Amino acid sequence: MTVINSKVANIGEMKLEHFEKGDTFESNSVRIGTLLGAKDLGYSYDVVPPGKRSCPFHSHRGEEEMFFIVKGSGTLRYGSETRKIREGDVICCPTGGPETAHQIVNDSDADLAYLSVSTKMAAEVCEYPDSNKIGAYGGNLRHLTRIEHDLDYWTDEVP
């Protein structure tokens, strides 16, 4: 990979890492921001094979995301809606709850490649409407639980 002053890289020259989970999730991707030393934004390049998705349907309470479709076509799930997406599309995913949940699905017969950019927050809460999970992330904390496992603020605090 060619890197100029550690701040410029070409996606065509990057080594992509393969990820696969079950029959649904698969991608080849690279965390570009980490490689180039980005501080406040995270950015990645993902190539999703036909019939796959790179991540679960989710929303963010702290981080805003943007996707730019580099090549191919597919479907965007966004809240309760779906729409076709294609090369050149820019997708905005602001913070919010299930109404801003999003997922890119490659339902075409060719690779779908996109760049994602997100704000980097020290702490984040994500919701996963398809599986009724909530994830809390920050530092070394990575905790997922079910929405129905609601505890009162005072549970086990008062003897």
Which range does the strand content fall in? Answer: over 45%
CATH topology: Jelly Rolls
User: Rg to the nearest angstrom?
Assistant: 17 Å
Helical coverage, percent range = under 10%
- Into how many domains do the coordinates divide? 1
CATH class membership: Mainly Beta
Number of helices: 1
Instruction: Let me know the average pLDDT.
Output: 93
Q: What sequence of helices (H) and strands (E) makes up the elements? A: EEEEHEEEEEEEEEEE
Strand line-up in the sheet with most strands: 3-4-5-12-7-10
Largest sheet: 6 strands, antiparallel
Number of strands: 15
Question: What's the CATH H-level homologous superfamily?
Answer: Jelly Rolls
Structural class: mainly beta
Span of the ends, CA to CA: 59 Å
Domain Cupin type-2: 47-117
GO molecular function, one term: metal ion binding
Organism: Solimicrobium silvestre
Protein name: Putative conserved protein contains double-stranded beta-helix domain
Structure description:
A hairpin with a 2-residue loop joins strand 8 and strand 9. The model has no long low-confidence stretch (mean pLDDT 93). This protein is globular. Helix content is 3%, strand content 50%. The longest helix has 5 residues. With 159 residues, the protein is mostly beta strands. Strands 3-4-5-12-7-10 form a six-stranded antiparallel beta sheet. A four-stranded antiparallel beta sheet has the order 6-13-14-15, with no helix packed on it. The chain has one domain: Jelly Rolls (Sandwich), CATH 2.60.120. It comes from Solimicrobium silvestre.
